[in-house]
Design brief:
Phage_lysozyme2; G5 domain-containing protein; 11 strands; elongated; signal; G5_dom; Ubiquitin-like (UB roll); four-stranded mixed beta sheet; Lysozyme-like_dom_sf
Length: 345
């Protein structure tokens, strides 16, 4: 029997042009949502499996390390302050970088940078201007000039024992040489007389070279071969020698270390590092990085963990240095070994 019902049409053929457009738009939106979900999922998974490493307080006198510090998120397991920031300050054309925390306005930057304004100073922008890391503060001082001075850094005498020399004899292995500390000072004069002189920055222009004296511990029979074997014997020794303190500051550091269970080798390592980092200048300031003090801590305010007088007290700075070496390298001698390879620590 013949059927009088209309033949069945495929459902898609019944859709109007407008309905087709709605379906296409919906499909595109769904695709975007799905694709976005995959991309965002991969993004967060990538960050979770590859955490960002940041740089904390450390001795930094190299521009690449400073740039790394600026780019880092500032925070790690060693207890760095995630709020640490930096602002550039230019005084009579001389630049320095002030590092600190909780910067709010220009005045807060100058306070944390220990920059004291004189009555005749002009400051731009104004003291109550809000600051960010892109802010540059300019200070012009009337009657002031930038002057550079060099001062000597005394060398130390290091005694190294060797069995290639007979007991009771000594031999100079290396002659000592004084180093040079260069300081940039803002000098204000009135009527030809110096009213004030403030150090803007200072750094070790030339590190001192230790005088190394070999102390014989061998038998008398070894004297004939002492001259030819002394250098090879010392180069293979793991003992880095005993350093004779060259100042009251070093004498305190020596006595403090030994009274707290450290060794002569630890003191030798300390002296070498600080000779090269700051020349034993308590207020040494690296203008480009903001590193400060004997250990060139970056920023200097990190040393506040050892005492509130960290800006001026060498004992506080040295205590921080010891703790830093222990925490980061496992000891002063390990930090010394790292410094020899990297020229920083």
């Amino acid at each position: 029997m013949a059927s009088h019902r209309k033949p069945k049409e495929f459902i898609l053929k019944r859709l109007t042009k407008r309905q087709w457009m709605r379906i296409a738009a919906g499909s595109a939106a769904a695709a975007l949502l799905i694709g976005g979900g995959v991309v965002s999922r991969d993004f967060y998974q990538t960050n979770a499996t590859h955490p960002q490493h940041s740089i904390s307080s450390y001795s930094a006198t190299k521009s690449d390390e400073v740039n790394a510090f600026k780019a880092a998120s500032r925070g790690d397991a060693r207890g760095s302050d995630a709020d640490t920031s930096y602002v550039k300050v230019i005084i009579n054309g001389e630049s320095r970088l002030v590092l600190g925390t909780d910067f709010t306005d220009v005045k807060s930057v100058l306070d944390q940078g220990s920059i004291t304004l004189e009555p005749e100073d002009s400051v731009s922008p104004s003291l109550d201007t809000k600051v960010t890391e892109s802010t540059t503060i300019t200070i012009e001082r009337a009657g002031s000039t930038i002057e550079t001075t060099d001062t000597e850094i005394p060398f130390n005498t290091v005694e190294e024992k060797t069995d290639s020399l007979p007991a009771g004899t000594t031999k100079v292995k290396t002659e000592g040489e004084t180093g040079v500390m260069e300081a940039t000072n803002l000098v204000t004069k009135s009527g030809g007389n110096v009213v004030s002189s403030n150090t803007i920055s200072s750094y070790v222009k030339k590190a001192p070279v230790n005088k190394v004296v070999l102390i014989g511990t061998g038998s008398t029979s070894s004297s004939s071969s002492s001259s030819s074997n002394s250098n090879s014997s010392d180069s293979s020794s793991s003992d880095i020698g005993t350093t004779i303190p060259a100042s009251d500051m070093q004498q305190w550091a020596h006595d403090y270390l030994l009274s707290n269970g450290y060794s002569e080798a630890d003191f030798t390592g300390m002296v070498y590092i600080i000779n090269h980092e700051s020349g034993w200048n308590v207020s040494a300031t690296n203008a480009s990085s903001g590193a400060y003090g004997l250990p060139q801590a970056l920023p200097g305010s990190k040393m506040a963990s050892a005492g509130s007088d960290w800006k001026t007290n060498y004992q506080t700075q040295l205590k921080w240095f010891i703790g830093y070496c222990n925490d980061r390298y496992g000891g002063i001698q390990q930090a010394y070994t790292y410094w020899l390879s990297h020229h920083s620590y």
